[in-house]
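Students often ask what a holo structure prediction actually looks like on paper. The answer is less mysterious than it sounds. You provide the chain, you provide the ligand, and the output is a string of discrete structure tokens encoding the 3D arrangement of the protein together with 5-O-phosphono-beta-D-ribofuranosylamine.
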Amino acid sequence: MTKTRAAVLISGRGSNLRALIEACKAQDFPAEIVLVVSNVLGAEGLAHADSAAIPTRTVDHKGFASREAFDAALSEVLDEARVELLCNAGFMRLHTEGFVRHWWNRHLNIHPSLLPAFPGLHTHARVLEGGAKISGCTVHFVRPQMDTGPIVAQAAIPVLPGDTEDSLAARVLAAEHRLYPHALRLVASGAVRVEGESVVGLSRVRDQAALFSPPLNEGL
Ligand code: GRF
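The corresponding structure tokens follow.
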């Protein structure tokens, strides 16, 4: 089976990267991670790639005078590794429009809310402030505007009485670790595609349904 050559872009801890690495170990997984790129020197997540013997590169954004120059350097390392699909996983840089257009429909991101609600930073604090009863996470194709783009998959997480930013973040993160491999499988296998600005092609109910964690009828 020919696997899609994926790269993961990180800036920090890399727990989603670790989940993707684990998923890619399955023989029937349709993608392989051929490169991990960090824009932060010594990012913690690079260790996950090292222990799985996946090549890593650091392209330190501080060394570049403009976003264009940084993205050009990033493109160079991705081209060298013949990357076909990009997965942002806690990558804290905005891409230039040219970069986004180059990777159009071949570039995923994960965000810790149910988009289009709560894009941007400090998501969990804003969810709590807003009194939302359900939060979650989203994997979507990248578009020029931050945290927008066709949605591949989502997981819903109830906000519990007494939740703090940390407790909510921890439950959402656990869902992210299940959601991202699921979404990558759908995209890399060709099970879904973008039509207009929607993701279509899901034929099985279990793929179409958002993932709920825990199932909403539990304990009701
Ligand atoms: C995750 O919550 C992800 O949704 C957001 O940044 C965080 C990255 O965490 N974009 P990690 O580096 O994958 O542990």
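The first helix runs from residue 15 to 24.
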